[in-house]
Amino acid sequence: MKAVAYNIKEYEKESLAVANGKAHDLTLISNPLNRNTIHYAYGKEVVVVSEDDLIDGELLGELRRIGIRKIVTRSITTDHIDLCRAYDLGIQIANTPFEDHTPKGIAEQTIRNLNLWGDGKCVGGACCCAKECKLVDDQLGYDGTK
Questions:
Q1: Where is the D-isomer specific 2-hydroxyacid dehydrogenase catalytic domain (predicted)?
Q2: Best exposed site among 95, 99, 116, 135 by fewest CB in 10 Å?
């Protein structure tokens, strides 16, 4: 998948690169996602954000307009994302809810979400969609694996 990860801290770069293993076209930038930096998402399918990125309804509309269909947040919480507006726009949301919240663990969860979406599967326990996903019937485990 083609993805851009916003708000990347220096200590996250290596973990994300190693977890990705060149499986996805992943661009890492240190800028937060906002109206001034949305241009980095042009041509991408997914944006990866942190809990410091405020993803309100207006920004979601702009992301959808440029082709973004999926968002991964590198956090447990999704309070910074308007989930109802994302649902209305058909944007899927995933988080990183599993126990390992080290940079390595979060990177692995982020890439796992991209892998599952890339394979057309539900992300399981990481799914934060405001509705039940039609793919959820196909998945068996909490982590989205079969």
A1: 7-98
A2: 99
Say which CATH superfamily domain 2-138 falls into.
NAD(P)-binding Rossmann-like Domain (3.40.50.720)
Band of residue 140 on the pLDDT scale cut at 50, 70, 90? very low
- Mean predicted confidence (pLDDT) in 85-112: 95
What percent of the chain clears pLDDT 90, i.e. is strictly above it?
83
9: exposed, middle or buried (Cβ count in 10 Å: 0-12, 13-18, 19+): exposed
List C-alpha distances in Å: 145 to 19, 34, 87, 112, 123: 17, 33, 23, 10, 8
